[in-house]
Amino acid sequence: MHHKNDDNRHPDQPPLFTWEFAGDPYPAYAWLREHAPVHRTTLPSGVDAWLVTRYADARQALADQRLSKNPVHHSEAAHGKGKVGIPGERSANLMTHLLNIDPPDHTRLRRLVSKAFTPRRVAEFAPRVQELTDHLIDGFAARGTADLIHEFAFPLPIYAICDMLGVPPEDQDDFRDWAGMMIRHGGGPRGGVARSVKRMRTYLAELIHRKREEPGEDLISGLIRASDHGEHLTENEAAAMAFILLFAGFETTVNLIGNGTYALLRNPGQRERLQRALAEGDESLLATGIEELLRYDGPVELATWRFATRELTIGGQRIAEGDPVLVVLAAADRDPERFADPDILDLARTDNQHLGYGHGIHYCLGAPLARLEGRTALATLLRRLPDLRLSVDPAELRWRGGLIMRGLRTLPVEFTA
Ligand code: HEM
Q: How far apart (Å, rounded) are the C-alpha atoms in residues 22 and 407?
């Protein structure tokens, strides 16, 4: 087999990071999986990184402790050249969060947050997610048209996580604005993003201070209270934790609802099957279906940065110390070596160990909440707007051009009011 790992694109290789690629990256990933499964490329930011595209290599790399999450291990960062482009990286205080650190710090912080952010807390939150979902649909149901990204997928996760954290309702629209800034400029100019991160940091620090004085039943109070063998989170650690919960749980869930709804609208047979099952009160297809939507066109296209702390090989390819490694979840999850008919959406797929939530010690902490929001959002949309359909030609839809995430800018729909 032909391995190609330099920047000189092979004549047959579909281009990466163009607008066409953003609309449908899967053919380019299929080419890489087959011809250059561990591929060195120059990212739009100018940074060189390795793309890992096969399922087996991807799963292994995600769990490989020689790959660090801490940007100090990046060779260019170490030499003071180039930036790795993590949004908000200048606000150092919030950046010491789970996705930027390794054991033993990661182990300690993850254990503490797991005591507060429990599956039980998420389960108890289900009625509130249903209420928020219905409230948002009420906002456009009588109109017969909507942009499901702006009016539905975008506000739902931000209000949900704000509620769970204990951000008072009157302050939640500020979060909506800051988050909007972060999502719009995720892959672009950083000025507004840095400002939004700064405002959020100040706000969270004050909120944590208030909750320490007057604890409640919310997640922030839970984070402050959480203890493990006498250890607690410091105020700064609690702020960084609240920030990563917001940041990691926001655009991902927007895209789960957006990409998921879009995939259902493009696959009418599957959508009808799901709608029928839901009408009969059977939620099992919804459960496997959400996992399949994550595999088929998941929110996280590339896992967040990893850096080689020493020389190592992935899939037979030598990676030098300090090199950035990006695991392409979207490519791995369509690997025909792992999934039968990987390009087909099959909501009933059961052998589905997809990597949409990552793998290993950084496996998504918010998966139970994401599943709850995804299931509630899609099931409620299909129940309440049974003839939901796209109101534009799919070719007109635009995808956001960020590096890590994959999601639509808008999703215009129509339905019988
Ligand atoms: C980590 C995906 C929703 C919180 C991750 C990772 C992935 C992921 C792939 C691992 C990244 C890596 O290893 O580089 C998703 C998807 C979601 C979702 C697809 C929605 C469908 C959420 C939500 C929350 C959340 C709702 C919290 C409210 C986190 C946190 C981490 C994480 C805190 C870091 C865990 C660690 O480093 O130990 N997520 N996520 N995520 N996610 Fe999610």
A: 9
Residues with CB under 6 A from ligand 1: 62, 98-99, 110, 161, 244-245, 248-249, 252-253, 256, 294, 298-300, 303-304, 356-358, 362, 364-366, 369-370, 374
Cα 98 to Cα 65, 66, 233, 278: the distances in Å are 14, 17, 13, 37
Tokens of 173: 């629209």
> Using CA atoms, how far apart are residues 66 and 307, in angstroms rounded to an integer?
8
pLDDT digits (tens, 9 = 90+) for 136-158: 999 999 999 999 999 999 999 99
Long-range contacts of 201-210 (CB under 8 A, 24+ apart): 201/91, 201/93, 201/94, 201/239, 201/243, 203/171, 203/174, 204/94, 204/239, 204/242, 204/243, 205/235, 205/239, 207/166, 207/167, 207/242, 208/235, 208/238, 208/239, 208/242, 209/235
Q: Which residues of 88-106 are buried (b: 16+ CB within 10 A; e: fewer)?
A: bbebeebbbbbbbbbeeeb
Instruction: Provide CB contacts within 8 A for 273, sequence distance 6+.
Output: 285, 347, 348
Q: Whose CA is nearest to atom 26 of ligand 1?
A: 249
pLDDT digits 0-9 by tens, 308-320: 999 999 999 999 9
40-97 pLDDT, tens digit each = 999 998 999 999 999 999 999 999 999 999 988 887 655 544 344 444 433 336 777 8
pTM greater than 0.80: yes
Can you tell me which atom of ligand 1 is nearest the CA of 256?
A: 21
What is the number of the ligand 1 atom nearest to the C-alpha of 161? 28
Q: And the tokens for 350?
A: 């059961």
